[in-house]
Amino acid sequence: MSEHNQQPFRSRDEELEHLGRQMADIREALREIAGRVNQIERHVKRSFGVSSLPGQATSKGPRRPADGAPEKPTMSAEEAISAFEGLVRTWKEQSPERVESRLQEIGTPDLKLIAHELGLSFTSKPSRKVLTAGIVGRINESIMLSRNTNITPPRSQSVPPESGSEPPKDS
Amino acid sequence: MPTGVRKSPKTIATINFKGGVGKTTVTWCLADLVSSFSNTNVLMFDLDAQMSLTQAIALNEATGKLHDKFGKWYGQAIAKRKTIFDALDQFTKPATHFDFAVGFDFIYKLSENLHFVPSVEDLYWMELEVFNRDGVKDFIRRLMGKIANSAGMPQYDLVLFDCPPSFTLLSYSVLSCCDLILIPVNPDFFASKGTNLILNSLKMRIEPFPLPKIGVFMNKAKTWSGSPTKEAQFYIREVAQVCREASEKQQIEAKFFKSWIPERVGVKRAITSGGIPYELVDPFKALWSEALDYVGAQPAALSKP
Q1: pLDDT digits over A83-111, tens only?
Q2: What is the pLDDT of residues B155-180, one digit of tens each?
Q3: What is the CA B132 to chain-centroid distance, rounded?
Q4: How far is B35 from chain A (nearest CA, A)?
Q5: Do the domain assignments include residue A132?
Q6: B153, B35 contact by CB (below 8 A)
Q7: Interface contact flag, A145 B234, Cβ < 8 Å
Q8: pTM
Q9: Across residues B206-226, what is the average pLDDT?
Q10: In chain A, N or C terminus with fewer CB closer than 10 Å?
Q11: Can you tell me the mean pLDDT for A57-76?
Q12: pLDDT of res. A56
Protein backbone atom coordinates (compact mmCIF):
# COMPACT_ATOMS: atom_id res chain seq x y z
CA MET A 1 0.00 0.00 0.00
CA SER A 2 1.30 3.39 -0.89
CA GLU A 3 2.17 6.05 1.61
CA HIS A 4 -0.48 8.20 0.03
CA ASN A 5 -3.11 5.69 1.11
CA GLN A 6 -1.65 5.36 4.60
CA GLN A 7 -1.65 9.10 5.14
CA PRO A 8 -4.59 10.61 3.34
CA PHE A 9 -4.06 14.33 2.93
CA ARG A 10 -6.75 16.83 3.51
CA SER A 11 -5.60 19.09 0.75
CA ARG A 12 -3.24 19.34 -2.19
CA ASP A 13 -1.11 21.88 -0.30
CA GLU A 14 -0.76 19.51 2.63
CA GLU A 15 0.46 16.73 0.33
CA LEU A 16 2.90 19.06 -1.42
CA GLU A 17 4.27 20.16 1.94
CA HIS A 18 4.74 16.53 2.95
CA LEU A 19 6.55 15.68 -0.28
CA GLY A 20 8.74 18.74 0.14
CA ARG A 21 9.77 17.56 3.62
CA GLN A 22 10.59 14.12 2.24
CA MET A 23 12.75 15.62 -0.51
CA ALA A 24 14.57 17.76 2.02
CA ASP A 25 15.25 14.66 4.17
CA ILE A 26 16.63 12.76 1.19
CA ARG A 27 18.82 15.71 0.19
CA GLU A 28 20.18 15.90 3.73
CA ALA A 29 20.93 12.17 3.68
CA LEU A 30 22.72 12.51 0.31
CA ARG A 31 24.77 15.40 1.65
CA GLU A 32 25.81 13.28 4.62
CA ILE A 33 26.77 10.38 2.35
CA ALA A 34 28.72 12.68 0.02
CA GLY A 35 30.50 14.20 3.03
CA ARG A 36 31.40 10.77 4.35
CA VAL A 37 32.76 9.69 0.88
CA ASN A 38 34.87 12.84 0.72
CA GLN A 39 36.18 12.16 4.22
CA ILE A 40 37.24 8.63 3.25
CA GLU A 41 38.80 9.87 -0.01
CA ARG A 42 40.86 12.46 1.87
CA HIS A 43 41.95 9.84 4.40
CA VAL A 44 42.98 7.41 1.62
CA LYS A 45 44.90 10.14 -0.17
CA ARG A 46 46.72 11.42 2.92
CA SER A 47 47.41 8.11 4.66
CA PHE A 48 48.05 5.88 1.67
CA GLY A 49 49.20 8.40 -0.95
CA VAL A 50 46.79 7.23 -3.67
CA SER A 51 44.09 9.28 -5.28
CA SER A 52 41.63 6.43 -5.70
CA LEU A 53 41.18 2.89 -4.61
CA PRO A 54 41.52 0.07 -7.13
CA GLY A 55 38.21 -0.49 -8.95
CA GLN A 56 36.85 2.86 -7.83
CA ALA A 57 35.90 5.32 -10.56
CA THR A 58 36.94 8.81 -9.67
CA SER A 59 34.11 11.30 -9.67
CA LYS A 60 36.27 14.28 -10.58
CA GLY A 61 37.79 15.31 -13.90
CA PRO A 62 36.78 14.52 -17.42
CA ARG A 63 36.23 10.93 -18.41
CA ARG A 64 39.01 9.72 -20.65
CA PRO A 65 39.21 6.83 -23.07
CA ALA A 66 40.87 3.59 -22.02
CA ASP A 67 44.26 4.49 -23.48
CA GLY A 68 44.38 7.67 -21.39
CA ALA A 69 44.60 10.05 -24.36
CA PRO A 70 42.10 12.92 -24.38
CA GLU A 71 39.40 12.71 -27.01
CA LYS A 72 40.18 15.08 -29.85
CA PRO A 73 38.04 16.09 -32.80
CA THR A 74 39.08 14.77 -36.17
CA MET A 75 38.22 18.00 -38.00
CA SER A 76 39.28 21.64 -37.92
CA ALA A 77 36.99 24.55 -37.03
CA GLU A 78 36.55 25.42 -40.72
CA GLU A 79 35.70 21.81 -41.50
CA ALA A 80 33.18 21.81 -38.67
CA ILE A 81 31.41 24.81 -40.22
CA SER A 82 31.53 23.15 -43.65
CA ALA A 83 30.07 20.00 -42.12
CA PHE A 84 27.22 22.05 -40.68
CA GLU A 85 26.56 23.69 -44.04
CA GLY A 86 26.51 20.23 -45.59
CA LEU A 87 23.93 19.15 -43.03
CA VAL A 88 21.75 22.17 -43.87
CA ARG A 89 21.95 21.30 -47.57
CA THR A 90 21.07 17.69 -46.82
CA TRP A 91 18.07 18.82 -44.75
CA LYS A 92 16.85 21.03 -47.61
CA GLU A 93 17.59 18.74 -50.54
CA GLN A 94 17.08 15.30 -49.02
CA SER A 95 15.39 14.81 -45.68
CA PRO A 96 15.68 15.55 -41.96
CA GLU A 97 15.98 11.80 -41.36
CA ARG A 98 19.11 11.69 -43.49
CA VAL A 99 20.58 14.47 -41.32
CA GLU A 100 19.68 12.58 -38.14
CA SER A 101 21.46 9.47 -39.38
CA ARG A 102 24.44 11.54 -40.53
CA LEU A 103 24.68 13.10 -37.06
CA GLN A 104 24.67 9.63 -35.50
CA GLU A 105 27.70 8.75 -37.60
CA ILE A 106 29.70 11.73 -36.29
CA GLY A 107 31.87 11.11 -33.24
CA THR A 108 31.16 12.94 -29.99
CA PRO A 109 34.32 15.12 -30.11
CA ASP A 110 33.38 16.27 -33.62
CA LEU A 111 29.79 16.92 -32.53
CA LYS A 112 31.15 19.02 -29.68
CA LEU A 113 33.34 20.99 -32.07
CA ILE A 114 30.46 21.64 -34.47
CA ALA A 115 28.27 22.75 -31.58
CA HIS A 116 31.05 25.02 -30.32
CA GLU A 117 31.57 26.61 -33.73
CA LEU A 118 27.82 27.28 -33.93
CA GLY A 119 27.99 29.16 -30.65
CA LEU A 120 25.94 26.64 -28.73
CA SER A 121 26.58 26.73 -25.02
CA PHE A 122 25.60 24.20 -22.43
CA THR A 123 25.38 24.47 -18.68
CA SER A 124 27.06 21.11 -18.08
CA LYS A 125 28.83 18.40 -20.02
CA PRO A 126 26.36 17.76 -22.82
CA SER A 127 25.27 14.30 -23.89
CA ARG A 128 25.22 13.27 -27.57
CA LYS A 129 21.46 13.72 -27.49
CA VAL A 130 21.77 17.31 -26.27
CA LEU A 131 24.54 18.11 -28.77
CA THR A 132 22.50 16.67 -31.63
CA ALA A 133 19.40 18.58 -30.55
CA GLY A 134 21.39 21.82 -30.42
CA ILE A 135 22.83 21.31 -33.90
CA VAL A 136 19.41 20.39 -35.32
CA GLY A 137 18.08 23.58 -33.73
CA ARG A 138 20.68 25.63 -35.58
CA ILE A 139 19.83 23.80 -38.84
CA ASN A 140 16.20 24.77 -38.35
CA GLU A 141 17.17 28.38 -37.66
CA SER A 142 19.29 28.47 -40.79
CA ILE A 143 16.43 27.16 -42.92
CA MET A 144 13.83 29.46 -41.36
CA LEU A 145 16.05 32.52 -41.82
CA SER A 146 16.04 32.08 -45.57
CA ARG A 147 12.47 30.93 -46.02
CA ASN A 148 9.52 33.08 -47.07
CA THR A 149 6.08 31.75 -46.37
CA ASN A 150 3.56 34.29 -47.55
CA ILE A 151 5.04 37.17 -49.45
CA THR A 152 2.46 38.27 -51.99
CA PRO A 153 2.60 41.17 -54.41
CA PRO A 154 0.79 44.37 -53.49
CA ARG A 155 -2.79 44.68 -54.71
CA SER A 156 -1.78 47.37 -57.15
CA GLN A 157 0.51 44.90 -58.90
CA SER A 158 -1.81 41.91 -58.85
CA VAL A 159 -2.27 40.25 -62.21
CA PRO A 160 -5.66 41.03 -63.75
CA PRO A 161 -7.76 37.97 -64.55
CA GLU A 162 -7.60 36.67 -68.11
CA SER A 163 -10.32 37.88 -70.43
CA GLY A 164 -11.87 34.44 -70.69
CA SER A 165 -12.23 34.12 -66.97
CA GLU A 166 -13.83 37.50 -66.33
CA PRO A 167 -17.04 37.34 -64.39
CA PRO A 168 -20.12 38.08 -66.46
CA LYS A 169 -21.15 41.71 -66.40
CA ASP A 170 -24.47 42.69 -64.99
CA SER A 171 -27.03 42.89 -67.67
CA MET B 1 30.26 77.82 -48.95
CA PRO B 2 31.14 76.91 -52.52
CA THR B 3 28.95 78.43 -55.19
CA GLY B 4 27.89 77.08 -58.56
CA VAL B 5 26.15 73.81 -59.33
CA ARG B 6 24.96 72.01 -56.24
CA LYS B 7 25.57 68.31 -56.18
CA SER B 8 23.01 66.00 -54.64
CA PRO B 9 23.80 64.76 -51.17
CA LYS B 10 24.21 61.06 -50.48
CA THR B 11 21.08 59.84 -48.75
CA ILE B 12 21.06 56.87 -46.40
CA ALA B 13 18.01 55.40 -44.68
CA THR B 14 18.43 53.20 -41.63
CA ILE B 15 15.60 50.70 -41.37
CA ASN B 16 14.64 47.32 -40.01
CA PHE B 17 11.11 46.08 -39.36
CA LYS B 18 12.35 44.66 -36.06
CA GLY B 19 12.50 47.14 -33.21
CA GLY B 20 15.47 47.44 -30.91
CA VAL B 21 18.19 46.51 -33.41
CA GLY B 22 19.88 49.88 -32.99
CA LYS B 23 18.57 51.97 -35.90
CA THR B 24 18.56 55.17 -33.88
CA THR B 25 22.01 54.76 -32.33
CA VAL B 26 23.51 53.73 -35.67
CA THR B 27 22.02 56.81 -37.37
CA TRP B 28 23.27 59.04 -34.59
CA CYS B 29 26.73 57.50 -34.41
CA LEU B 30 27.25 57.77 -38.17
CA ALA B 31 26.05 61.37 -38.20
CA ASP B 32 28.21 62.25 -35.22
CA LEU B 33 31.24 60.44 -36.63
CA VAL B 34 31.09 61.98 -40.09
CA SER B 35 30.34 65.51 -38.87
CA SER B 36 32.96 65.36 -36.11
CA PHE B 37 35.81 63.78 -38.04
CA SER B 38 35.38 65.56 -41.39
CA ASN B 39 34.10 68.79 -42.86
CA THR B 40 31.04 67.00 -44.25
CA ASN B 41 27.73 68.81 -43.82
CA VAL B 42 25.30 66.29 -42.37
CA LEU B 43 21.52 66.50 -42.10
CA MET B 44 19.73 63.94 -39.97
CA PHE B 45 15.98 63.19 -39.99
CA ASP B 46 14.02 61.45 -37.28
CA LEU B 47 11.04 59.91 -39.11
CA ASP B 48 9.97 57.63 -36.29
CA ALA B 49 6.86 58.75 -34.44
CA GLN B 50 8.29 57.15 -31.32
CA MET B 51 10.75 60.05 -31.43
CA SER B 52 13.63 58.10 -29.91
CA LEU B 53 16.29 60.14 -31.68
CA THR B 54 14.53 63.43 -31.00
CA GLN B 55 14.10 62.67 -27.34
CA ALA B 56 17.63 61.38 -26.95
CA ILE B 57 19.02 64.54 -28.49
CA ALA B 58 16.65 66.80 -26.63
CA LEU B 59 16.84 65.28 -23.19
CA ASN B 60 19.16 66.69 -20.60
CA GLU B 61 20.16 63.62 -18.64
CA ALA B 62 21.07 65.61 -15.59
CA THR B 63 17.71 67.34 -15.23
CA GLY B 64 15.43 64.98 -17.15
CA LYS B 65 14.08 68.01 -19.01
CA LEU B 66 14.55 69.19 -22.56
CA HIS B 67 17.73 71.11 -23.24
CA ASP B 68 16.69 74.73 -22.96
CA LYS B 69 17.91 75.77 -26.38
CA PHE B 70 16.39 72.83 -28.22
CA GLY B 71 13.22 72.91 -26.10
CA LYS B 72 12.60 76.54 -27.00
CA TRP B 73 13.35 75.96 -30.69
CA TYR B 74 11.14 72.86 -30.80
CA GLY B 75 8.23 74.67 -29.14
CA GLN B 76 8.48 77.44 -31.73
CA ALA B 77 8.66 74.96 -34.61
CA ILE B 78 5.45 73.34 -33.42
CA ALA B 79 3.73 76.67 -32.81
CA LYS B 80 4.76 78.02 -36.23
CA ARG B 81 3.76 74.74 -37.90
CA LYS B 82 7.29 74.08 -39.13
CA THR B 83 7.61 70.39 -38.32
CA ILE B 84 8.05 67.41 -40.63
CA PHE B 85 4.37 66.64 -40.14
CA ASP B 86 3.38 70.15 -41.20
CA ALA B 87 5.55 69.81 -44.30
CA LEU B 88 3.82 66.52 -45.14
CA ASP B 89 0.43 68.00 -44.37
CA GLN B 90 1.12 70.84 -46.76
CA PHE B 91 2.43 68.46 -49.41
CA THR B 92 -0.62 66.20 -49.34
CA LYS B 93 -3.25 68.93 -49.41
CA PRO B 94 -5.15 68.53 -52.65
CA ALA B 95 -4.61 71.02 -55.43
CA THR B 96 -2.09 73.19 -53.65
CA HIS B 97 1.47 74.00 -54.62
CA PHE B 98 4.07 72.62 -52.22
CA ASP B 99 5.44 75.93 -50.99
CA PHE B 100 6.67 74.88 -47.57
CA ALA B 101 9.49 77.30 -46.81
CA VAL B 102 12.58 75.61 -45.43
CA GLY B 103 14.87 77.42 -43.01
CA PHE B 104 16.44 77.02 -39.62
CA ASP B 105 13.01 77.17 -38.07
CA PHE B 106 12.50 73.72 -39.66
CA ILE B 107 16.05 72.41 -39.31
CA TYR B 108 17.83 72.54 -35.96
CA LYS B 109 21.58 73.16 -35.75
CA LEU B 110 23.11 70.60 -33.45
CA SER B 111 26.60 71.77 -34.35
CA GLU B 112 28.22 73.75 -37.13
CA ASN B 113 27.94 70.89 -39.63
CA LEU B 114 25.41 68.53 -38.05
CA HIS B 115 21.81 69.58 -38.51
CA PHE B 116 18.62 67.83 -37.47
CA VAL B 117 14.96 67.58 -38.41
CA PRO B 118 13.15 66.20 -35.36
CA SER B 119 10.09 63.99 -35.23
CA VAL B 120 6.70 64.90 -33.80
CA GLU B 121 3.97 62.86 -32.18
CA ASP B 122 1.56 63.78 -34.96
CA LEU B 123 3.35 61.26 -37.17
CA TYR B 124 1.66 58.54 -35.12
CA TRP B 125 -1.70 59.39 -36.66
CA MET B 126 -0.43 60.25 -40.11
CA GLU B 127 -1.42 56.88 -41.54
CA LEU B 128 -5.02 57.57 -40.54
CA GLU B 129 -5.02 60.99 -42.14
CA VAL B 130 -3.31 60.16 -45.40
CA PHE B 131 -4.70 57.32 -47.41
CA ASN B 132 -3.10 57.99 -50.73
CA ARG B 133 0.20 56.15 -50.86
CA ASP B 134 1.11 57.62 -54.21
CA GLY B 135 0.37 61.06 -52.85
CA VAL B 136 3.22 60.69 -50.37
CA LYS B 137 5.84 58.87 -52.40
CA ASP B 138 7.45 62.05 -53.76
CA PHE B 139 7.36 63.91 -50.47
CA ILE B 140 10.95 63.32 -49.34
CA ARG B 141 12.32 63.81 -52.85
CA ARG B 142 10.53 67.17 -53.12
CA LEU B 143 11.46 68.18 -49.60
CA MET B 144 15.12 67.46 -50.33
CA GLY B 145 14.80 69.63 -53.41
CA LYS B 146 13.38 72.44 -51.30
CA ILE B 147 16.23 72.13 -48.81
CA ALA B 148 18.84 72.13 -51.58
CA ASN B 149 17.36 75.19 -53.24
CA SER B 150 16.48 77.30 -50.22
CA ALA B 151 18.50 80.44 -49.80
CA GLY B 152 20.69 80.50 -46.72
CA MET B 153 20.72 76.75 -46.27
CA PRO B 154 24.02 74.86 -46.45
CA GLN B 155 24.83 72.35 -49.13
CA TYR B 156 24.44 69.05 -47.38
CA ASP B 157 26.81 66.26 -48.36
CA LEU B 158 25.07 63.55 -46.43
CA VAL B 159 21.47 63.04 -45.32
CA LEU B 160 20.61 60.30 -42.85
CA PHE B 161 17.08 59.10 -42.12
CA ASP B 162 16.16 57.22 -38.96
CA CYS B 163 13.12 55.24 -40.13
CA PRO B 164 10.42 53.64 -37.97
CA PRO B 165 10.40 49.87 -37.42
CA SER B 166 7.59 49.43 -39.92
CA PHE B 167 6.80 50.27 -43.49
CA THR B 168 5.00 53.60 -43.10
CA LEU B 169 4.15 56.10 -45.79
CA LEU B 170 7.20 58.11 -44.81
CA SER B 171 9.42 55.03 -45.02
CA TYR B 172 7.99 54.43 -48.47
CA SER B 173 8.78 57.96 -49.50
CA VAL B 174 12.37 57.75 -48.19
CA LEU B 175 13.13 54.32 -49.59
CA SER B 176 11.82 55.41 -52.98
CA CYS B 177 14.55 57.98 -53.34
CA CYS B 178 17.55 57.21 -51.13
CA ASP B 179 20.96 56.02 -52.29
CA LEU B 180 21.43 53.35 -49.65
CA ILE B 181 19.16 51.38 -47.37
CA LEU B 182 21.19 50.48 -44.31
CA ILE B 183 19.84 47.55 -42.32
CA PRO B 184 21.35 46.82 -38.92
CA VAL B 185 20.71 43.30 -37.65
CA ASN B 186 21.51 41.70 -34.33
CA PRO B 187 23.00 38.29 -33.68
CA ASP B 188 19.76 36.61 -32.73
CA PHE B 189 17.14 34.72 -34.66
CA PHE B 190 14.30 37.24 -34.52
CA ALA B 191 16.43 40.24 -35.47
CA SER B 192 18.02 38.29 -38.31
CA LYS B 193 14.68 37.02 -39.60
CA GLY B 194 13.56 40.55 -40.51
CA THR B 195 16.37 40.84 -43.06
CA ASN B 196 14.91 38.12 -45.22
CA LEU B 197 11.49 39.73 -45.09
CA ILE B 198 12.79 43.13 -46.16
CA LEU B 199 15.08 41.82 -48.87
CA ASN B 200 12.45 39.62 -50.43
CA SER B 201 9.50 41.99 -50.30
CA LEU B 202 10.87 45.52 -50.61
CA LYS B 203 11.41 45.48 -54.34
CA MET B 204 7.77 44.83 -55.17
CA ARG B 205 6.68 47.50 -52.70
CA ILE B 206 9.01 50.14 -54.08
CA GLU B 207 8.31 49.47 -57.76
CA PRO B 208 8.15 51.18 -60.19
CA PHE B 209 11.01 53.03 -58.51
CA PRO B 210 14.35 51.25 -58.71
CA LEU B 211 15.28 49.66 -55.42
CA PRO B 212 18.27 51.42 -53.86
CA LYS B 213 21.34 49.49 -52.89
CA ILE B 214 20.92 47.67 -49.61
CA GLY B 215 23.70 47.29 -47.06
CA VAL B 216 23.23 44.90 -44.16
CA PHE B 217 25.58 44.71 -41.21
CA MET B 218 25.79 43.10 -37.80
CA ASN B 219 25.14 45.48 -34.95
CA LYS B 220 25.45 44.81 -31.21
CA ALA B 221 27.66 41.77 -31.75
CA LYS B 222 28.83 40.22 -28.50
CA THR B 223 32.60 39.87 -28.47
CA TRP B 224 35.22 37.56 -27.09
CA SER B 225 38.88 38.62 -27.27
CA GLY B 226 38.06 41.34 -29.76
CA SER B 227 36.14 39.14 -32.20
CA PRO B 228 32.46 38.29 -32.49
CA THR B 229 31.47 35.32 -30.35
CA LYS B 230 30.87 32.01 -32.10
CA GLU B 231 27.13 32.62 -31.80
CA ALA B 232 27.45 36.06 -33.39
CA GLN B 233 29.59 34.52 -36.14
CA PHE B 234 26.84 31.98 -36.81
CA TYR B 235 24.32 34.75 -37.44
CA ILE B 236 26.85 36.74 -39.47
CA ARG B 237 27.29 33.75 -41.81
CA GLU B 238 23.55 33.12 -41.97
CA VAL B 239 22.54 36.72 -42.72
CA ALA B 240 25.32 37.00 -45.30
CA GLN B 241 23.85 33.91 -46.95
CA VAL B 242 20.35 35.43 -46.87
CA CYS B 243 21.75 38.52 -48.63
CA ARG B 244 23.44 36.43 -51.30
CA GLU B 245 20.29 34.36 -51.94
CA ALA B 246 17.98 37.41 -52.04
CA SER B 247 20.33 39.25 -54.42
CA GLU B 248 20.20 36.34 -56.79
CA LYS B 249 16.53 35.55 -56.45
CA GLN B 250 15.15 39.10 -56.42
CA GLN B 251 17.74 40.62 -58.74
CA ILE B 252 18.57 43.29 -56.16
CA GLU B 253 21.83 44.71 -54.86
CA ALA B 254 22.02 43.55 -51.27
CA LYS B 255 25.42 43.34 -49.68
CA PHE B 256 26.37 42.09 -46.28
CA PHE B 257 29.12 44.33 -44.93
CA LYS B 258 32.23 42.84 -43.40
CA SER B 259 32.26 45.61 -40.82
CA TRP B 260 30.41 44.91 -37.61
CA ILE B 261 29.64 46.95 -34.55
CA PRO B 262 30.32 45.45 -31.13
CA GLU B 263 27.74 45.50 -28.40
CA ARG B 264 28.32 48.23 -25.88
CA VAL B 265 26.31 48.70 -22.74
CA GLY B 266 24.75 52.13 -22.49
CA VAL B 267 25.44 53.17 -26.08
CA LYS B 268 22.13 55.06 -26.13
CA ARG B 269 23.55 57.41 -23.55
CA ALA B 270 26.16 58.42 -26.12
CA ILE B 271 23.45 60.53 -27.72
CA THR B 272 22.43 62.33 -24.55
CA SER B 273 25.98 62.65 -23.32
CA GLY B 274 27.29 64.14 -26.52
CA GLY B 275 29.40 61.83 -28.63
CA ILE B 276 30.10 58.46 -30.12
CA PRO B 277 31.85 56.23 -27.56
CA TYR B 278 35.59 56.07 -28.10
CA GLU B 279 35.70 52.30 -28.58
CA LEU B 280 33.04 52.48 -31.31
CA VAL B 281 34.84 55.08 -33.40
CA ASP B 282 36.98 52.64 -35.35
CA PRO B 283 34.16 50.11 -36.00
CA PHE B 284 31.90 52.92 -37.26
CA LYS B 285 34.72 54.34 -39.38
CA ALA B 286 35.13 50.93 -41.01
CA LEU B 287 31.38 50.67 -41.58
CA TRP B 288 31.23 54.16 -43.04
CA SER B 289 34.14 53.50 -45.38
CA GLU B 290 32.52 50.27 -46.59
CA ALA B 291 29.12 51.94 -47.08
CA LEU B 292 30.61 54.81 -49.11
CA ASP B 293 32.62 52.43 -51.22
CA TYR B 294 29.43 50.46 -51.88
CA VAL B 295 27.42 53.46 -53.07
CA GLY B 296 30.36 54.69 -55.12
CA ALA B 297 31.00 57.88 -53.21
CA GLN B 298 34.32 59.47 -52.49
CA PRO B 299 35.01 58.81 -48.82
CA ALA B 300 35.44 61.96 -46.82
CA ALA B 301 38.72 61.91 -44.94
CA LEU B 302 37.71 61.14 -41.37
CA SER B 303 40.74 62.71 -39.85
CA LYS B 304 39.60 66.01 -38.43
CA PRO B 305 40.51 65.96 -34.74
Answers
A1: 999 999 999 999 999 999 999 999 999 99
A2: 999 999 999 888 888 888 998 889 99
A3: 24
A4: 36
A5: yes
A6: no
A7: no
A8: 0.77
A9: 88
A10: C
A11: 64
A12: 65
The dihedral sign for the CA sequence A43, A47, A53, A57: positive
Same domain, A84 and A36: no
Spatial contact of B283 and B262, defined as CB atoms under 8 Å apart? yes
Question: Do both A88 and A141 map to the same domain?
Answer: yes
Nearest to B119 by CA among B25, B51, B19, B28: B51
From the list B201, B231, B238, which residue is nearest A142 (CB)?
A: B238
Same domain, A98 and A43: no
A138 domain residue, yes or no: yes
The pLDDT > 90 percentage for chain B reads: 50
Residues in chain B with CB shorter than 8 Å from the CB of A147 are 196
User: In this complex, do A151 and B239 lie within 8 Å of one another by their Cβ atoms?
Assistant: no
How many angstroms separate the CA of residue A16 from the nearest CA in chain B? 39
Which 3 state secondary structure label does DSSP give B262? strand
Instruction: Tally C-beta pairs within 8 A across A and B.
Output: 49
Residues A89 and A141 in one domain: yes
Where is A25: in which H helix or E strand?
Answer: helix A12-48
Residue B115 near residue B43 (C-beta atoms within 8 A): yes
A93 in a structural domain:
yes
Q: Which residues of B touch A118 (CB under 8 A)?
A: 230-231, 234
Q: How many domains does chain A have?
A: 2
Q: What is the ipTM of this complex?
A: 0.78
Diameter of chain A measured on Cα atoms:
109
Q: Does A4 map to a domain?
A: no
Residue of B nearest to A154 (CA): B205
Shared-domain flag, residues A81 and A140: yes
| Closest residue on chain A to B230 (Cα) | A119
What is the extent of the structural domain holding A32? 11-48
Asked if the model's pLDDT at residue B181 lies above 90, the reply is: yes
Count Cβ atoms below 10 Å from residue A162 Cβ, excluding itself: 7
Q: Does B241 touch chain A (CB under 8 A)?
A: yes
pLDDT of residue A170: 42
Q: Name the band, by pLDDT with cuts 50, 70 and 90, for residue B42.
A: very high
B183: closest CA of chain A, how far (Å):
16
